[in-house]
Design brief:
This protein is of the alpha/beta class. It has helices at 5-14, 38-46, 61-64, 80-90, 128-134, 152-159, 164-168, 172-181, 201-210, 224-237, and strands at residues 29-31, 51-55, 72-77, 96-99, 115-121, 135-146, 185-198, 240-252. The chain has an 8-stranded mixed beta sheet, sandwiched between helices. Residues 53-142 form the Methyltransferase type domain.
Length: 253
């Protein structure tokens, strides 16, 4: 039996949010993956260095899956529930988890030239001067970033057309220019747009509860009318389609 609109929304509202695990969406939403397979690249690189730092690690899921880790590996995270989740996941493997709000104008709590490798998966704002400071000469920054206008089909469904400056935010060329100003040189840059399908309105509700910056202040009550219309649209026409933007960036100090 097909679930009603109210059942789908209530289920998504009650679902857990801890960590950075999107497995709740299995069977309800799909997203193409970048061709470069960031997790594999990261895991391979971790086995080649002595000291590494992972910024904004989320719940530590990506690091925890690595088959081998360097002798020194530190992860930072700013959201308290994720700090707890990452600590539980990574401490048994000898990884130190440091609570640090990387989005704030607060220096990283590490010495200059402390790491051979700095990594991050989907940082909110890369702080290039701090990344360059904690890297050793010849050290590498390897990361997968969210690109410009990512999932904006969904954002604009709820918020209407977005200004051009909002669409250009996170542009990879702009990021590389800022990184160069901080003393980093480009090694590799690749960008892709990837298809996302939301198969029911509950998947949309859960996604927007998880990725809170997409539609700031989102709740199912505040957007009840838009959600009901979206539910009718998905039932009549099939999945709601959006596109994520991702870029792989590798820089060297």
């Amino acid at each position: 039996m097909h679930r009603t609109f109210d059942e789908l929304v209530a289920e998504a509202d009650a679902a857990p949010m801890a960590g950075w695990d999107f497995s709740w969406l299995e069977g309800r939403a799909t997203e193409e993956r970048p061709s470069w397979r960031y997790s594999r690249l990261l895991h391979d690189r971790l086995g080649t260095v002595d000291a590494a730092l992972d910024l904004q690690t989320g719940g530590g899921e990506v690091l925890a899956a690595a088959p081998s880790l360097p002798p020194l590996l530190v992860a930072t995270e700013g959201w308290p529930p994720n700090v707890a989740a990452a600590s539980a996941r990574l401490h048994p493997r000898g990884v130190a988890v440091v609570a640090h709000d990387d989005g704030a104008a607060v220096p990283l709590p590490f010495a200059d030239a402390a790491f051979d490798l700095v990594t991050s998966r989907h940082p909110v704002v890369p702080r290039w001067a701090e990344i360059a400071r904690v890297l050793r000469p010849g050290g590498t920054y390897l990361a997968q970033h969210v690109g410009p206008a990512s999932v904006f089909e969904l954002v604009e469904y709820f918020l209407g057309p977005q200004p051009e400056e909002g669409r250009r935010g996170r542009d990879p060329e702009d990021e590389v220019a800022a990184a160069r100003e901080a003393g980093l040189e480009l090694v590799d840059l690749r960008a892709e747009r990837l298809r996302i399908e939301f198969h029911d309105v509950g998947a949309v509700v859960w996604f927007l509860r998880k990725v809170v910056w997409m539609v700031p202040g989102f709740t199912s009550d505040a957007y009840r009318g838009e959600l009901r219309e979206l539910d009718e649209r998905i039932r009549a026409d099939g999945p709601f389609v959006a596109h994520s933007a991702r870029h792989l960036v590798e820089l060297r100090r």
